[in-house]
Amino acid sequence: MMSVKPPPHPTEIRLSDDHHSLVVVFNSGESFVLAAEYLRVESPSAEVRGHSPSERKILGGCRQVTINRLEPVGHYAVRILFSDGHDTGLYSWAYLYELGHDFDRIWTAYLTALASKGLSRD
Predict the structure, then answer these.
(1) What is the C-alpha separation between 93 and 76, in angstroms, rounded?
(2) DSSP calls for 34-59
């Protein structure tokens, strides 16, 4: 019988002193510093993701966004409240891990999409 390894879960989630990033440490020993801008533009909310890939919104102008507050959601996610008023995304442990682990691929895809729409990070 093959055992399935449970996905990593955070042992620490900490907002940086300047509110520009989130530090997430996982029980796998991996840790990631996730910028507020990155978390905002990759929000798992329907407002950003839409209900299908064709509805996804590419957000520009988020470079100065900060994190106002974190709210735990059960034992599986955190709600991030951003300085631009966005607060509807629930960041599951698995999604936070994916954002950290696959940062290069996700950020490059975002920058490419941003450029293709003629948008700026500022």
Answers:
(1) 6
(2) EEHHHHHHT--SHHHH-SSGGGPPPP
Domain span holding position 68: 10-116
C-alpha distances (whole Å) from 111 to each of 52, 55, 118 are 20, 18, 11
Answer yes or no: is 98 within a domain.
yes
Please report whether residue 3 resides in a domain: no
φ/ψ (deg, to 5) at 75: -110, 30
* pTM of the predicted model over 0.70: yes
CATH number, domain at 71?
3.30.2020.30
Q: Give the Cα separation of 107 and 12 in Å (integer).
A: 23
Instruction: Count Cα atoms within 13 angstroms, Cβ side, for 31.
Output: 11
Quick: pLDDT tens for 48-63: 988 887 888 999 999 9
